[in-house]
Amino acid sequence: MKVKLTELKSGYSGERRVSNLSPKSRAKVIIVGALVISFIFVYILSSVGVIPLDALLLKAKVAVSGNDERFPLLTDTESTICTDVIGESIVILTTDNLTVYTPEGKMKYSQPHIFSEPGISVNGDRAVVFDRGGNGFVLINEKKVVYEGKADNTIISAEYGEDGTYALSTKIDGATSTVAAYNKSNKLIFQWNCAYENIVSLSISDNGKYIGVAALGAKNGNLLTNVQYFGIDYKEPLNTQTIMGAVPFDIEFTGFNTLTLLTDVGVYTINRKDEKYTESLKYYSSEFNSCDVASNGKYIVSLAKYGSENVFEILLFKSNGKIKTTIQTDYSIKNVRMSDKYIFVLGEKAIYVYNYNGKEVSKIVYKGEAQSILPTDDFIFIVSLDKISRCFSYGNSEIELSN
Predict the structure, then answer these.
(1) CA–CA separation, 58 vs 64, rounded Å?
(2) pTM, two decimal places
(3) Which DSSP helix (H) or strand (E) runs through 239?
C-alpha cells in the first residue's frame, strides 16, 4: 500500500513505502538491532581493555559447565617440588613424577621420573624437566611428552624454544660449563664451552637462530655476569657484554634482536650489534622483590622502595627495555607474575590484578595462606600448603584457602 505524503501536515509532496511488518515483528527487529549494537559496543570497549568480553563469556561458560567442582586440586606437601603454568594448563612436578592438568582441573597426562634433583624450565606452552643432579631430561608441552633424553654430563640449566630447538648447559671436564643446542630432530647444532663462569640462564629466540647465555663469574673478588649473544651458525659470539656486580636471575629474548638480562641490581638490554649494553633500570639488591617475563616480550620488576616493607613500585617494560607503566602500591608484595594481558600481584591478604595501563581491574581477597600464584589471562591458580585453588583473573571476588 502507498500513502501520499501530501496528506500529512509536513507540506512534503511525495510518496514513501510503509513497512508490511506487524507491530510484533517490528518490535523483534528493534530488539535484535539493539542487541547487535550493544554487542558491537561491548566488543569495541573490550578491544581497548574497558570491558573484557572474553572474561564475561568465560564466567558464563564456567557457570554452565560447572567445572569449578574439580577445585581445589589436592597436592602432596612433602613430595611437591614445583608448580607452574604451561600455556593455559597447570604443571605439578613432584619427587617422582610430573602431571599436567587442564585449566578446568582435569588431568591431561602424568609422566614418572627418577631424577635425584628435579627442576623445570617453562617457556610459554612448553617446558624442560631435568635432573640437576644428573643428566636426564624430558621435553613436554601442554598436550604430551615430546621427548626423553640424556645429556653427556650433569645438567645446570635448560631451555625449550618455540620452534622446537632446545639447549642444555652442563658441567664438563676442561671447562667450567658448556652449552649445547639441538634441533627438534635432536641433532646437535651448536656447542660452546665456557672456560671460567657457570652458565646460569639460557634463552632461545623464537625462530631458533640465536641463543642468549648468562654466566656468573668473579674478578678480583667481585661478582660479575657475562652475557653471550650467539648465532646458531657461528662458533664465536656475535656480542659479549660484562656487567660488574650483578647476579643474573633470568635472560630472555624479549624482542627480535633484543636480549634482556634481569639481575639483583638492575635490568639490562643487549642488541646484536650494540657496542655496549643499555641499563634500563638500576636499583639496590635490598630493593629487589621479584620479576616476571610474559610470552609477548613485556616484563615486570617489583621493588621495595628504599627497602620498605609496605611501599612498593611495579614497573612494566616494553620488549625494547622502555618503561611503559609504573604502579605505586601501599601494600606489601610477596611476588608478581604476568600474563599476556594482565599484571598479577600477590599481597598479604589479597591478589591485585592490573591491566597494562596500570589500572586495577580485580581484587581477590583470600582467607588463609597463599604461597604463590600461577596466572593466565583467564584464571589465577592459587598455591597454598596442600592444594591449588582457582579464581577468575577478572572481577572482584573472595576465596577461602584454609579449608
Answers:
(1) 10
(2) 0.84
(3) strand 239-244
